[in-house]
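User: I'm writing a tutorial on reading structure tokens. Could you give me a worked example: one chain, its sequence, then its tokens, then a sentence or two explaining what the tokens reveal?
Assistant: Sure. Here is the example chain.
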Amino acid sequence: MTWRLFTVVANKELVVEKDLTEANIAVFCPKYQVKLRSRKKRPEGEFTIAVRPLFPGYIFSTHRLPDIERIVKTEAPLLMRPVVFFGSQSQISDDEVQRVKLIVDEFEEALSGDIEPHDMKKDDTVVVKRGTMKGMIGKVLEVHGRMLAVQFPNSSLVWRLPSTILHAQKR
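And here are its predicted structure tokens:
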């Protein structure tokens, strides 16, 4: 099975996923939960839980663009367009999507633990210390607090990973 990648209106990934699922379109939007300090006045240490997409601005579907377009008009107006590489719609192997599915649970587990400060920065080389990606070496593209955008060789995807499962490789 081949998956295709589509862009989505910012912060509307979960809405598009719901709309397409209800329309019986195969869709995958990997997510994780994160604890956030409540903005309301609450007792010290109280958190709210937010669901966030693992790849902000994108969803995966096994359907082709014409099938999606037929539904987009009525069911998912927030779906923007397919991601295109060298003139043809992106194609992601089922194996790569299955790997994403495998790490989502480990990803949530890593985020739920205590967070230690890290000193990783853009362009650092990092190694994954645990989980299904253990031992993989990648390059930090962006740092967002405890989340790092990391790209691994031989992968077209940029992974948003928690600093708790990474360590900087010695230079």
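What the tokens reveal: The first strand starts at residue 2 and ends at 8. The mean pLDDT is 79.
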